Amino acid sequence: MDNNALNIALPKGRSGDKVFSLFEQAGYGCPEIHEGGRRLIFENKENSLRFFFVKPSDVAIYVERGAADVGVAGRDILLEYSPDVYELLDFGVSRCRMSVSALADFNAEDKKILKVATKFPHIARDYYASQVRDIDIIYLNGSIELAPILGLSDVIVDIVETGETLRENGLVEYETIVDISARLIANKASYKFKYDRLTKLTKSLLAVIEKGKEND
Amino acid sequence: MEYKVKLLSTVEKAVFDLRELYRSYGYSQFSVGKFEEYDFYAQNKSFITGDSILTFTDMDGTLMALKPDITLSIIKSTKASPALRKVYYNENVYRAQNASSGFREITQTGLECVGPLDVYSVCEVIMLSAMSLEKVNSDYLLDISHIGLVPGFLEYAGADRESAKKLIEFAGEKNLHDAAILCRSIGMGEGHIKTLGKLMHMRTRLCDALDELQGLDIGEKALAAANELSEISENLSAIELGDKIFLDLSLGGDMRYYNGVIFRGFISGIPTAVLSGGRYDTLLRKMKKDGGAIGFAFYLDMLTGHFEEPEKYDFDILLIKNGNDPPAEILKAVKKLSDQGKRVRVDVSEPEGLKYEKSLTMGEIDG
């Protein structure tokens, strides 16, 4: 393997496909990726690029630990895990928001300790600390919407894209904590030692993003 | 006794090389016990890297801590003097970097210069930090900033305290997109936002960066910080480290302790900073001491496994003995092979998981 290759970690799934297409438009493609199969690493030897697709929540770890020079991670993951990385670009894709939702009859003024079900305990804790509100975090791995319906929690803090799942389950979105989108992140040491290549990559991707905005 | 350098690991080599370097500039070794009263660290918790301190209760009921840091102990033991206190250390510290890693014993070396500091002392410590990196690997970079520069600019640009705190975080991430949104929400002008972008993304060799910095509309406090960096840069240019030292204003630190130049060292192939330092007069004030202080820590544990060629064999010859081989003959044979520079292991059978060039029996060894 080429030790000077630029290692790029992308999230598996729709979000990764979207951002990879932006990389391609910026001149950082990798024909091997279109061949499909079960491979985990794809190389563009000509341009000295190496892509790998990992679980979205793991991208930041690969980048922080230097296994990848750059990667694409959601703002939700960056806020939740606070990895020590640079955040160079907002792709403006995979847009959604981190929100507080509850049943329609939820009384926000009730002063009891608020039971909050979430997959994002740090974001929830920081948000309610800024509101000077005592909370009891209930960490769940999935189907968060069930928690208020079954009386497990008063509210949920979770990602909302269209709001359809909330509506179908009789929940109301009360507050937006933060807007989420995919971000280009870089390992701090890689950024310094591969500065010219990473700056060029960031500028090329920014040009593609700006062009996309003009066309919208 | 002579030591073969090739037998030393990168960390062991670094310990010897750095000790020699610091001694050659007149720094004395500071040694310290492993424990300190917990209260001392609790009062200065923000100065310590990592979140947690390992504690235990001493026989008399005092809550004690395994030292998470050496600098605090050096400052605590510094007495008022018209001369500088110049010390280096090589000690183990105990801390947890984050909740998932748990507590670890970390080998750390570093130096501190405390007392009536002047520009020379500051430059000497920065030079020694660069030379420390060079000793380990010539492919290194030293990033320099001034703790007051970005905050000074933000004050000038009209950011309130809370927003400035958040904007400094964004600057540390080089995250201009979120910083610009926050700046606009507090009514900061587009000119200032552009300047903030330039500051957080500025990455130029220190010697080239300062003219550009001094040409920006950054306000008096930030300009004073820039001038301080400029003076350091001019002096450092005398020793030709220029192409290894970069201005990077995204470097941050705790303003309750640091008050001037700050720096971080990186070595190619290692994903995080291996050296961290800066000027911390404010910590001295907090401990009710006069003068200034500057120093750095080199995190030697980060070097583990780097820049070492993996050995092909664990030893050269496996000598399989059987019960009839006279011990005296074996001792003679092994000594002879060892004197020829061979690494010999005597065993009764083949050890699992170890690699060796060849296996012999006593009968196969000449005379």
Model regions low in confidence, pLDDT < 50 over at least 5 residues of chain B: none
Q: Which two chains touch over the largest interface?
A: A-B, 18 and 18 residues
| Low-pLDDT runs of chain A | none
Mean pLDDT of chain A: 92
Spatial arrangement of strands, main beta sheet of chain B: 1-5-6-12-11-10-7-9-8
Helix content of chain B: 25-40%
Q: What amount of the residues of chain A lies in strands? A: 25-35%
Q: Tell me the helix content of chain A.
A: 25-40%
Give the helix/strand class of chain B: alpha/beta
User: What average pLDDT do the residues of chain B reach?
Assistant: 90
What's the number of extended β-strand segments of chain A?
11
Oligomer: heterodimer
Query: Shape of chain B from CA axes?
Result: elongated
Report the principal-axis shape of chain A: elongated
The helix/strand class of chain A is: alpha/beta
Number of strands of chain B: 15
Distance between the termini of chain A: 40 Å
What Rg of chain A do the Cα atoms give? Answer: 20 Å
What does this structure look like?
The complex is a heterodimer of chains A (216) and B (367). By secondary structure, chain A is an alpha/beta fold. Chain A has 8 helices and 11 strands. In chain A, the strands form 2 sheets. A 6-stranded mixed sheet of chain A has the order 2-3-1-4-11-5. In chain A, strands 8-7-9-6-10 form a 5-stranded mixed sheet. In chain A, helix 4 links the parallel strand 7 (114-118) and strand 8 (135-139). The termini of chain A are far apart. The mean pLDDT of chain A is 92. With 367 residues, chain B is of the alpha/beta class. Chain B has 12 helices and 15 strands. Chain B has a 9-stranded mixed sheet with strand order 1-5-6-12-11-10-7-9-8. In chain B, strands 2-4-3 form a 3-stranded antiparallel sheet. In chain B, helix 12 (327-339) links the parallel strand 13 (315-320) and strand 14. Chain B is elongated. Chain B starts with 9 loop residues before the first helix and ends in a 6-residue tail after the last strand. The interface between A and B is medium-sized, with 18 and 18 residues.
